[in-house]
Design goal:
Layout (H helix, E strand, L loop, with lengths): L7 H43 L6 H5 L7 H19 L11 H5 L9 E4 L8 E2 L11 E4 L4 E2 L2 E2 L5 E3 L2 H7 L6 E4 L1 E2 L7 E3 L6 E3 L3 E3 L9 H8 L2 H10 L1 E2 L4 E2 L2 H5 L2 E4 L2 H43 L7 H8 L7 H17 L1
Parallel strand pairs: 3-10
Antiparallel strand pairs: 1-14, 2-11, 3-6, 4-5, 7-9, 7-11, 8-13, 12-13
Helix pairs in contact: 1-9
């Protein structure tokens, strides 16, 4: 293997400059990573304000026909009765929160009400337990496909089972809840936007929320916010390296119910802010990639003899032990030959 060699003072100067540039580079990378972490905090702060009613406070003041909290509960009753009759299902009663339970939840605007996820649906639904394949007619979404409240379509398995497809085929705006995962990831959710035909696997639960009561994106954002995460941590069942939140526990999750128009407005306010976060995060990732490329570029220049500028080269040539590379090479050869004779 050929090794580039230069005078010792120049080697020391190159090492010193590499360390200096790497130190500056590491500081820059640390700042980028810090900014990335701060974006996570900001995202949660946006969601917190959203579900406390702060983002739509002025909007509510401009409305004249918003239902009050009692009106929302009456709407739930009517819509669920109508949906149950249409589906031919018996309506299940959902036990309301006790006064003590409400005390533990955030205060809401007077037009809102804390209800349970179970109030929004005729029943949640577990996904398929059938074995998937590497290819097939329809994608099967699994817990690993849920990333940051969205579905990642890059790592898919498939099915061609007609019965499974008919039973578990997803519809636009279905919200899926991850019931089994590691303790830090259990309870994450994503919303299906009809990107391509898909069914869902057994570790996921379809909430089947009634569209007359809950905007899908509003529900999805809430289930990915800190309030829902704290509740999930309090009810999950822990096993070896895995935690579980079953359908019954999901049905008892708290949900800050407000009118549909306000839910839609809140989603718009959230997405306006988070889209800026997405752009900044994309810029951060781009700069992190550039930083890694710059690290390689520094090393490349160093070993091509292009890292030191003319002033720095002039300084090292003034060092007491500086000698031309060819002289150094001859000396190395002589020392090597001498050592070979011993």
């Amino acid at each position: 293997m050929e090794v580039t060699i230069c005078p010792l003072p120049e080697q020391r100067a190159i090492v010193s400059k590499i360390e200096q540039l790497f130190s500056e580079l590491e500081n820059g990378i640390a700042n980028l990573k810090l900014a990335k972490e701060q974006l996570k905090v900001y995202r949660q702060a946006v969601l917190k304000k959203a579900f406390e009613g702060e983002l739509t406070k002025k909007w509510r003041e401009q409305q004249t026909d918003l239902p009050d909290a009692g009106g929302l509960l009456e709407q739930i009753r009517k819509e669920k009765e109508k949906a149950a009759k249409k589906a031919g299902k018996k309506l299940k009663q959902v036990k309301p929160f006790t006064e003590d339970e409400l005390e533990d939840l955030n205060r809401l605007p007077k037009e809102w009400n804390w209800v349970k996820i179970g109030n929004l649906t005729l029943g949640v639904e577990y996904g398929t337990s059938a074995k998937s394949k590497e290819s097939g007619d329809v994608a099967v979404l699994r817990m690993g496909n849920i990333q940051n409240g969205r579905f990642d379509w890059s790592d898919l398995v498939y099915t061609s089972d007609k019965t499974e497809i008919e039973k578990y085929l997803l519809s636009k705006d279905d919200v899926l809840f991850n019931r089994t995962n590691s303790p830090e990831l259990v309870g994450k959710t994503a919303i299906y936007k009809g990107e391509k035909p898909a069914i869902f696997a057994g570790y996921l639960i379809r909430i089947n929320q009634l569209s007359e009561l809950a905007v899908a994106d509003y529900l999805n954002y809430f289930l990915n916010c800190h309030i829902a995460k704290v509740h999930g941590n309090s009810v999950k069942t822990d096993g070896v390296n895995q935690s579980n939140i079953n359908g019954e526990k999901l049905g008892n999750y708290p949900f800050p119910l407000c009118s549909l128009p306000e839910q839609q407005t809140i989603v718009q306010e959230i997405e306006t802010r988070l889209s800026i976060c997405d752009k900044i995060e994309q810029d951060i990732e781009t700069n992190l990639e550039k930083a890694e490329a710059l690290r390689q570029s520094i090393l490349k220049k160093a070993f091509e003899g292009k890292l030191l500028n003319e002033r720095e080269l002039a300084e090292v040539r003034g060092a007491e032990d500086w000698e031309p590379a060819e002289v150094l090479l001859e000396r190395i050869k002589a020392e090597k030959a001498q050592n070979g004779k011993k």
